Amino acid sequence: MRIRSLLLLVTPLALSLSAETTWQQVQPILERRCVQCHQKGEIAPMAFTSYAETRPFAKAIRQAVARQSMPPWHAAPGAHSFRNDRSLSAAETATLTAWVDAGAPAGPAVKAIAAAAPAGPRRWKLGQPDRVVQVPGFAVPASGQLPYSFLIIPLNLKQDTWLRAAEFRIDQRQVVHHINAFIRPPGSSYLAGFPVNEVFSPTPAQRSKRHAHERVFDRRQLILGYEPGYEPMPWLEDGAKLIPAGSDLIFEMHYNPSGSPAVDRSEFALYFAPAAPRHRVVAIDTLRDLDFVIPPHAGGFVSQAAMTLARPARLLSVQPHMHVRGKQMTVRAVYPDGRAETVLAVPRYDFNWQTTYVLARPLDLPRGTRLESTAGFDNSANNRFNPDPAASVRWGDQTTDEMHIAFLELVIEAQGDPEKLFNAVPPGPRPAPPAAR
Predict the structure, then answer these.
(1) How far apart are CA 35 and CA 27, in angstroms?
(2) CB atoms closer than 10 angstroms to residue 378
(3) How far apart are CA 101 and CA 94, in angstroms?
(4) Residue 150: which of 108, 199, 206 has the closest Cα?
(5) DSSP reduced 3-state for 95
(6) Phi, psi of 373, rounded to the nearest 5 degrees
(7) In this structure, what are the phi and psi dihedrals at residue 19, rounded to the nearest 5 degrees?
(8) Strands (DSSP E) found in 100-160
(9) Which stretches of 18-141 are assigned E, i.e. beta strand?
């Protein structure tokens, strides 16, 4: 009787475990965590929108889950959660692993995943935009090193306009290093005098030219940037970014040849807010170190950057940015009362997957809060991505150079002045020194 009773208890449990390893249980996990990239027309090389598509990659899925390389999420667990967290829970990892170990069975209910966006590369994930602008067929050669290229597009907006969201649709992902979209208000010094509606490549000195005492946001405002790992989402339900009347849109484009010629026709969608919001979202790129010099063969070089807020704000997001020598970054908030907390720690930075970490709840930053960024670099031969361990490395545009920026999005009142966030006008990037002859 005792053995029979144990069998009665074990049999339902075994049946339950068996049920948890079928496609029926795996499908919702892929839908939540993977299909945004693993569908036709997106960045992943294979689609996971059906059992037939997914089954051949079952062992690869298990390996990626075990290494925690997929889904790509590089933030360490901490005090803050993020709206766009792609990491798997322990239960999700166990389910995927059990499914593969069981032979990746189909189970009784096999159906296609309702993909995050309808299949196909020509769909906008945030819905039908109010306006779309396009790169007019930029020809990328098969090889070589390309300078930053720019495109000025007049928006011809007659009144101040609020932007609730924006979205990039990248055409030739294999060659696009990044595209930044800036707003240039009327009277700005930023690329003043250059032609509109045609691509050009100014020198670093021409790019950095500015009027004396020019305010930061009167010169340019970052709307959105695309890098590998980009994920479109609206900023806030009650927050938007401001486009002053008469502003131009400027694309800053950086292409890396991939071995085959390509013609890029990437697009950028604008979603206008129906009314003025309660809050204004502003992008800040001034938490950065412009003066570092990474010595040759340095395996543990550290760069520090800091800025202090002159007005209260809320922190919405952080995006670490370095190049191929970048290994880790930590961003901290040090409050006026002396408290300090880590906002974001990325112990394994990946240049090929640069995430903007969006806080689930914006973080209140009182006046006098000091924001600190610490970046670690590996310029040694142990870094398999290092193009030249013998080089002294400084700030520069190319992937062979380096950068240390923690891009921030801050939230202020809609009628607030973002210039008052700064104690002083932050300096802009300086042109690189001439190469030694």
Answers:
(1) 10
(2) 21
(3) 10
(4) 199
(5) helix
(6) -125, 130
(7) -65, -30
(8) 131-134, 138-140, 149-154
(9) 131-134, 138-140
Of 262, 270, 354, 335, nearest to 75 by C-alpha is 354
How far is the C-alpha of 4 from the C-alpha of 106, rounded, in Å?
31
Q: What pLDDT score does 303 carry? A: 98
> CA of 260: how far to CAs of 255, 358, 422, in Å?
13, 35, 45
Beta bridge partner(s), residue 281: 411
The gap between the terminal CA atoms of the chain, to the nearest Å, is: 91
Closest CA to 350 of 386, 325, 333, 370: 325
Three-class DSSP category at 275: coil
Question: Per 3-state DSSP, what percentage of the chain is helix, strand, and coil (rounded to 5)?
Answer: 15, 30, 55
Closest CA to 171 of 271, 40, 263, 270: 263
| Backbone φ and ψ of 99, nearest 5° | -65, -45
What is the rounded radius of gyration, in angstroms, for the C-alpha atoms of the chain?
24
Query: Between β-strands 248-255 and 176-184, what pairing exists: parallel, antiparallel or unpaired?
Result: antiparallel
Q: Which residues of the chain have pLDDT under 70?
A: 1-20, 109-122, 424-437
The 10s digit of each residue's pLDDT in 255-280 is: 999 999 999 999 999 999 999 999 99
Given this model, what pLDDT does residue 68 score?
A: 85
Q: Would you call 197 helix, strand, or coil by DSSP? A: coil
Query: What is the per-residue pLDDT for 14?
Result: 40
pLDDT at 2: 39
8 A C-beta contact, residue 64 and residue 70: yes
In contact, 308 and 344? CB cutoff 8 Å:
no
Cα gap 388→40, rounded to integer Å: 37
Please tell me the predicted confidence (pLDDT) of residue 336. 96
What is the DSSP code (8-state) at residue 436? P
Confidence (pLDDT) at 109: 62
Say how far apart CA 48 and CA 266 lie, in whole Å: 25
- Using CA atoms, how far apart are residues 80 and 423, in angstroms rounded to an integer? 27
Q: What is the pLDDT, as a whole number, of residue 369?
A: 97
Q: What is the pLDDT of residue 433?
A: 45
Spatial neighbors of 98 by CB under 8 A, at least 6 apart, are 17, 20, 21
